[in-house]
């Protein structure tokens, strides 16, 4: 099996048309016409009439032919290539791979289907698919709330030798707060859109109780909790110090996250974007358990923990920066040590309004955003083909489309959004899809040919602009 790290190596060979992942890019680079890059109809994993209708509708409003082609390729990519739908024990069940890695990340799977949620209200087939994701995620959480990625069955993993408690259902067991937040976000958004509470059955309620239990365990107030992790590796971001428990912290009530959404280890274990995301998720859980499941006690437990997290972040993680005023730190340890940077993976500081953690015009967020999109952020790169966020997960000076897309999703400035789209259009290296990352000076050097989250998030940006800022789509990029 191929490790996730191996997929992150720069694909200059692939750019030359040589297949490195069983995927020949040469035809993409040689074609002059904008022929669809979607699988043939009979080879698509799932077909939604409402998604197809929305693609046709939005394409009519896009003036730039290449941009319309990119949208048509990218928006349905998750449905076309990554989902496996079934009915098990009378319930929908949907397994979602990330693309070129045959495993289901709780984070990625939630984000991959999220752009389709607005279309579920009048599409029973699509509604069943997403209900199946919610059901599968509850099942995964009950297998192990500390795992970030799961197999479809009990296939085992190349990571079985990791020094942690591995199970045959697990692909990887890196503890990341957001792995438990994203399934709540998906379930809540689905419920608010459709009014369907059928997913909130006994299994789901049990999984959510385990989520809150895990959050509290990882506050580590009285002991380090049951989770530790180490890997035999030369890559320091793939393992944890201090016998697998991470760097020391002062126990202030925040939740420890051993890894970031990028699957890289935290330097300081209090990852602020993820703790803010957890507060939002807990309030969403509180609403569900209060109104649908009639469990006021658990609802109050969720809202109380959310309030505690928010108050503690305001006290310990909002600080006066030398150049930007009051802003959020990225990571802290509770002793006063803070890390100032941002990473392209979501949740990050840039994404806070997108995830409901604050308003776009929040003063602290505005200051934080200025920092994130500046040369003072060590992972903000500027090159010949654009500018954007990168991170430790790929090489230095490699920009992630996820970061560019998130910049567009969190902006109200038409000029800024235009520049984001222009950069994305000019850096897909002729493939018709988004990549994980690309060289700021040569987009033909990129990582991951098939990264469904980036594709559908790009589709979400165009979907949003069609609804709110259609005038941007009328331009040529």
- Overall form: globular
Mean pLDDT: 94
Helix content: 40-55%
Strand order of the largest sheet: 3-4-5
Beta strands, count: 15
The secondary structure category is alpha+beta
In short:
The chain has 477 residues and is an alpha+beta fold. It has a single domain (5-473), classed as Glycosyltransferase (Alpha/alpha barrel).
Account of the 3D structure:
The protein is an alpha+beta fold and 477 residues long. The chain has a single domain (5-473), classed as Glycosyltransferase (Alpha/alpha barrel), CATH 1.50.10. The chain contains 16 helices and 15 strands. It has helices at residues 12-15, 26-30, 49-60, 65-74, 77-81, 106-113, 124-143, 178-194, 202-217, 272-291, 296-316, 363-372, 401-409, 414-426, 452-468, 470-473; strands at 83-88, 91-96, 104-105, 149-150, 170-172, 270-271, 318-321, 325-328, 331-332, 338-339, 380-383, 386-389, 398-399, 437-439, 442-447. The strands form 6 sheets. It has a 3-stranded antiparallel sheet with strand order 3-4-5. A 3-stranded antiparallel sheet has the order 6-9-10. A 3-stranded antiparallel sheet has the order 13-14-15. α6 runs parallel beside α15 and α13 packs antiparallel against α14. The longest helix is centred in the middle third of the chain and has 21 residues, at 296-316. The radius of gyration is 21 Å and the shape is globular. The two termini are 40 Å apart. 51% of the residues are buried.
């Amino acid at each position: 099996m191929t490790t996730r790290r191996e997929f992150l190596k720069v694909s200059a060979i692939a750019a030359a048309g040589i297949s490195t992942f069983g995927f020949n890019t040469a035809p993409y680079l040689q074609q002059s016409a904008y022929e669809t890059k979607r699988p043939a109809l009979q080879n698509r994993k799932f077909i939604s009439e409402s998604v197809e209708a929305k693609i046709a509708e939005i394409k009519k409003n896009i003036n730039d032919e290449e941009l319309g082609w990119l949208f048509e390729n990218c928006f349905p990519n998750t449905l076309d290539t990554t989902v496996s739908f079934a009915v098990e024990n009378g319930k929908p069940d949907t397994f979602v791979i990330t693309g070129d890695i045959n495993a289901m990340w709780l984070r990625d799977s939630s984000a991959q289907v999220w752009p389709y949620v607005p279309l579920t209200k009048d599409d029973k087939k699509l509604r069943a698919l997403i209900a199946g994701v919610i059901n599968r995620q509850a099942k995964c959480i009950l297998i192990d709330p500390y795992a970030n990625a799961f197999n479809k069955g009990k296939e085992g993993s190349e990571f079985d030798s990791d020094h942690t408690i591995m199970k045959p259902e697990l692909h990887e067991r890196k503890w990341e707060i957001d792995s438990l937040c994203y399934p709540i976000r998906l379930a809540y958004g689905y419920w608010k859109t459709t009014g369907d509470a059928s997913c909130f059955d006994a299994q789901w309620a049990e999984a959510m109780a385990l989520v809150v239990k895990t959050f509290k365990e990882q506050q580590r107030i009285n002991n380090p909790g049951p989770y530790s992790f180490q890997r035999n590796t030369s890559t320091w971001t793939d393992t944890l110090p201090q016998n697998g428990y991470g760097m020391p912290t002062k126990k202030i009530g925040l939740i420890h996250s051993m890894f970031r959404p990028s699957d890289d280890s935290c330097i300081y274990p209090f990852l602020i974007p993820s703790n803010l995301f957890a507060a939002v998720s807990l309030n969403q859980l509180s609403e569900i358990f209060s109104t649908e499941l009639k469990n006021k006690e658990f609802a109050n437990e969720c809202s109380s923990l959310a309030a505690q997290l928010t108050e503690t972040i305001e006290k310990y993680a909002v600080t006066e920066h030398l150049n930007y005023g009051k802003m959020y730190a990225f990571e802290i340890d509770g002793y006063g040590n803070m890390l100032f940077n941002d990473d392209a993976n979501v949740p990050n500081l840039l994404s806070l309004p997108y995830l409901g953690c604050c308003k776009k015009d929040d003063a602290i967020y505005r200051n934080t955003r200025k920092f994130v999109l500046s040369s003072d952020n060590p992972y903000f790169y500027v090159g010949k083909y654009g500018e954007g966020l990168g991170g430790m997960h790929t090489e230095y000076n490699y920009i992630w489309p996820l970061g560019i897309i998130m910049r567009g999703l969190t902006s109200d400035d038409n000029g800024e959004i235009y520049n984001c789209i222009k950069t994305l259009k000019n850096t897909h290296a002729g493939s018709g899809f988004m990549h994980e990352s690309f060289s700021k000076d040569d987009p033909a050097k990129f990582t991951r040919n098939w990264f469904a989250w980036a594709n559908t998030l790009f589709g979400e940006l165009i979907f949003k602009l069609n609804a709110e800022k259609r005038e941007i789509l009328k331009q040529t990029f």
